[in-house]
Amino acid sequence: MLTVHHLRISQSERIVWLCEELGLEYDLKLYTRRSDNNLAPDDYKALHPMGIAPVITDGDFVLGESGAICEYIDRKHGGARLSPGPDHPDFAGHLFWFHFSNATFMTNGMMALVAGRMGGETPEFVAGRVAKAWALAEARLADADFFGGSQLTTADIMMGFNLTTSRMFGGADLASFPNIAAYLKRIGERPAYRRAMEKCEPGMTPKLD
After folding, report:
1. What is the pLDDT of residues 165-207, one digit of tens each?
2. Is 193 left (phi over 0), alpha (psi -120 to 50) or beta?
3. Angle at the Cα of 163 from the Cα atoms of 54 and 91, rounded to 5 degrees
4. Residue 194 Cα distances to 16, 93, 186, angstroms
5. Please, are residues 53 and 7 in contact by the beta-carbon 8 Å criterion?
6. Residues 12 and 99 in one domain
7. Are 99 and 67 in contact (CB under 8 A)?
8. What percent of the chain has pLDDT over 70?
9. Number of structural domains the chain divides into
């Protein structure tokens, strides 16, 4: 049985959403952050050597890392329905946004978050990269309905967290990004997204605006 281990208020929500979009049968286990430091509890850290979210188990197999998990689930359990192949016109765009999500967008945001938590000002080069990343996302959604192109792909699963729940830790005001705001409205209307958020974050209103 495929099991998604979801740490509350974390990027592992991506994996729940993916499973719902694919209509998969899966077991969902919720873990609450520690009250003293807001980090993962010990039983979550014990799941994988990195001790961070997300983590899945598929029988005895354990896998971490958002991108790897998305590819694994979509290809092994979803028939690669959310991953355009090399002959598809959206192939290159999908690949870019799938990898851009954590390699650049989230990395820049995390650098800014850490600088703020340490009481210092965000370095100018970090602030510049954050601004460029948001501007690039806004421009993409002026030209396409989804980050993956003409249809929702795992690139959208990856980018979605960065634009929604991640902003609970700090982030841009969507008033400056009308294309992103319109995109999130469309995402929020997807039954699979609504089911996922109700399951993984019960009682929390998704941060879609």
Report:
1. 999 877 778 999 999 999 999 999 999 999 999 999 999 999 9
2. alpha
3. 80
4. 11, 26, 11
5. yes
6. no
7. yes
8. 94
9. 2
Buried/exposed code over 53-77 (b: 16+ C-beta within 10 A; e: otherwise): bbbbbbeeeebbebbebbbbbbeeb
Here the CATH number for the domain that contains residue 172 is 1.20.1050.10
- Which residue is listed with tokens 């971490």? 64
CA distance 181 to 171: 14
For residues 78 and 75, give the distance between their C-alpha atoms in angstroms, rounded to a whole number.
6
Instruction: Dump the DSSP string for 160-171.
Output: HHHHTGGGGGS-
Count CB atoms within 10 A of the CB of residue 92: 12
Residue 83 CA to residue 125 CA, distance in Å, equals 33
For the chain, the first-to-last Cα distance in angstroms comes to 35
Asked whether the predicted pLDDT for residue 140 surpasses 80, the reply is yes
Amino acid at 175: A
